[in-house]
Every structure is written in structure tokens, then in C-alpha cells.
Amino acid sequence: QFDGFIYPAYDQIVSQLAKIHARSKGTVKMPVTIRVPFGGGIGAVEHHSESPEAYFAHTAGLKVVSCSNPVDAHFMIQQAIASDDPVLFFEPKRRYWEKAEVDTAMTPDPLWQARVVREGTDATLIAYGPMVKTCMDAATAAEEDGRSLEVVDLRSLSPLDFPTVIASVRRTRRAVVVHEAPSFVGLGSEIAARLSEELYYEMEAPVLRVTGFDTPYPPSRVEEEYLPDLDRVLHAVDRSLGY
Fold first, then answer.
1. Do 128 and 19 share a structural domain?
2. Is residue 108 part of a domain?
3. Can you give the pLDDT at residue 141?
4. Active-site residue list
5. Quick check: pTM over 0.90?
6. Among 74, 80, 107, 179, which is most buried by a count of CB atoms within 10 Å?
7. 2-38 as b/e: b if 16+ CB within 10 A
8. What is the pLDDT of residue 2?
9. Residues 6+ apart with CB under 8 A from 145
10. Are residues 129 and 201 in the same domain?
């Protein structure tokens, strides 16, 4: 089902599934994987395009991951199923039609590890799920103007791989966080706070966010006005480089 229909199960997920392992002092494992198709960009009707990942990432005891490409989708779902912890696997619906060759013999990255998917020197774009491709497109466009953008695919939202994020931003000294969910109390807020705590004296500009707006998800005919796109990402990069 789509993300908008997960809420009837919310009580069981956060009140029971997330806590049984801790309540049992580790004696009871919870190897449960919940697949959640999420995000917009598909012209769907109400309740089919939201991004509720922050609700679950905030809940101790749950693991939350999101793939951004077919290869990661192949390996990450298997790793999630193999985990002893409950995992919410957020799948970007707008990427369902993408295809790629998968080397099934390769060793995948650890499930909870972020990945630098494009190296750069001027600023770091931090994203997950559907927005990784948007950031990659923005980095390609920026290169034509002589700007070098690094892109970090978070992959895991809880736990967050902060060492990878911090190492990237320490190199570029600027950061822009991009996600479809509204900005208020979103994943971008936590990332911005942690970067400010760790790198306050090293950064050249404040952490900026490019997100969905703090409104209910709009009708499909105007969703392109709501979703972060290449122009909004590049505008944030311009603002960051302007400091």
C-alpha cells in the first residue's frame, strides 16, 4: 500500500514493534520489514504521495532506510529482511520505473552506511530516496557553470551515518539538505543541527534546506510546484556560495 495508509498501523508499529526488543532485554528479536512506497511525482490522488519517514525515524527501536536506485533496492531489501530489528523500508514511487544491471555477486555496502555518490569541492548536497537523482542532476548542471558539488546519499535515516556526512561537509564547508517531506521538524532539521554542533567553526555558510512546503500535499495538478526540483536546489547552492 501507499505511505498514506500506514497510519492505522502506527500504534502497533511505534508502541509495540519498536519496543519489544528493549522490553525483553534483547531476548526477543523483531526481524520485521515493512515496505512503504512513499513520495510524490507520480500524479496520484490524495494519500498517495506523502513522505512520513520522520515520524518513524524519531521512534527509538525502529530502523528506517530508503533506497534511491535499482541496485540499492535489490540489496537493501535483502539486508533489511536479514536484520534482527524492525526496519521500515521506504521506496520512492517515482523511481519504480528505473532499471539497472545488478551484479548479484558484488558485496553491498552495509545497510546503515551513507554513500558519497558524486565527489565535489564547493558544497555538499545531502539527500535520500527520490531526491538523490534530483541532486545528481543539479550537480551536473552546476558543473557547466564551474561549480563542483558533492552528493551524499544517506540511504539509512535511522540510524544516520553522521561520520560520512560530517567528513563530506568538512571538505566542502557548505551543505544543502534536500528532501520531499515538509521542512518543519524534518530530517533536514536534525542534520542541520548536528552539522552546526560538529562543524560550527569550520563551515563557510549555514546549512540550508530544500524541502516540500509546510502544507498538506497538494492535488497532483500542482505537485510540481510543491516538490523540490533542480532549480530550487541550484538556488540554494547559489545562496550558500554567496556567504
1. no
2. no
3. 97
4. 48
5. yes
6. 179
7. bbbebeeeeeebbeebbbbbeeeeeeeebebbbebbb
8. 84
9. none
10. yes
If asked whether residues 161 and 85 sit together in one domain, one would say no
Cell triple for 165 = 556526512
Q: What's the number of domains the chain is made of?
A: 2
CATH number at residue 159: 3.40.50.920
Residue 45's pLDDT is 81
Structural domain containing residue 140? 115-241
The span from the first CA to the last CA of the chain, in angstroms, equals 44
What residue type is 82 in one-letter code? A
pLDDT attached to residue 29 = 94
Q: Which grid cell sits at 146?
A: 564551474
> Does a structural domain hold residue 123?
yes
Segments of the chain scoring below 50 in pLDDT = none
Distance CA 161, CA 125 (A): 15
CATH number at residue 44: 3.40.50.970
Q: Are residues 126 and 225 located together in one domain of the fold?
A: yes
Q: Do 176 and 74 share a structural domain?
A: no
